[in-house]
Amino acid sequence: MKLDRESMILYVVTDRGWLGNNSFIKQVEEVLQNGATFLQLREKDLSYNDFLKEAMEIKVLADKYKVPFVINDNVEIALACNADGVHVGQDDMPAKEVRSLIGENKILGVSVQTVEQAIKAEKDGADYLGVGAIFSTSTKPDADTVSVETLKTICQRVSIPVVAIGGINEKNIMELKGTGISGVAVVSAIFASPDIARATRTLFELSKRMVSSS
After folding, report:
1. Domain covering 5-212, topology
2. Rounded CA gap, 15 and 24, in Å?
3. Domain ranges in the chain?
């Protein structure tokens, strides 16, 4: 699966931190039903077998809703469940190495914070970039923030799609208008919401409006 910019409008990163009494798989399906255009499965604490089982279940859902599905920082799981690709950060396996392992037909996303990292990631085979944290975020409290100006410059200097991530929600998303991004990546703005379906629909509409006015 290759990437088109429209699939980046609402990039949802999973987080089981707000599960409550809900089933994680049910939450993910709600997100897919209500406007997510891209899905990243992020798991830091599951065993290999549990992670793989979950990834395979979610892959079935992502295929059902025709949404690209990538695994965060685990090439082995991504290949084992036949995910559409992998997303890696600056402290994970180098992008060039990931590309050689997953081949040319899988999607590769890379997290960057600087213009230099962005240019290198594109050169090393990235299909899209995640830039952030743009605003302070409860999901990664120790993450360094990236200015909106830097975000804008990154968009100007690379030819691949860019999504902004970090503390983005309904109240601040329109501040990213005019930056050149293809969409936003969100975690807590959806999974911490008492109404996941409504939050997803609202963020999809806002992101679409923000991107079209860029």
Report:
1. TIM Barrel (3.20.20)
2. 9
3. 5-212
Contact call for residues 23 and 34 (beta carbons, < 8 A)? no
Using a 10 angstrom Cβ sphere, with 0-12 exposed, 13-18 middle and 19 or more buried, the burial of residue 119 is middle
Question: Residue 92 — φ and ψ, nearest 5°?
Answer: -95, -165
Active-site residue list:
42, 111, 140
* Residue 24 backbone dihedrals phi, psi, to 5 degrees: -60, -45
How high is the pLDDT of residue 141? 67
Average pLDDT, the chain: 95
Indicate the DSSP class of residue 135: S
pTM over cut 0.90 = yes
pLDDT digits (tens, 9 = 90+) for 64-82: 999 999 999 999 999 999 9
Which alpha helices (H) appear in 34-142, and where do they start and end? Answer: 48-64, 75-80, 95-102, 115-123
The pLDDT confidence band at residue 1, using thresholds 50, 70 and 90, is: low
| The residue to which tokens 């079935």 are assigned | 60
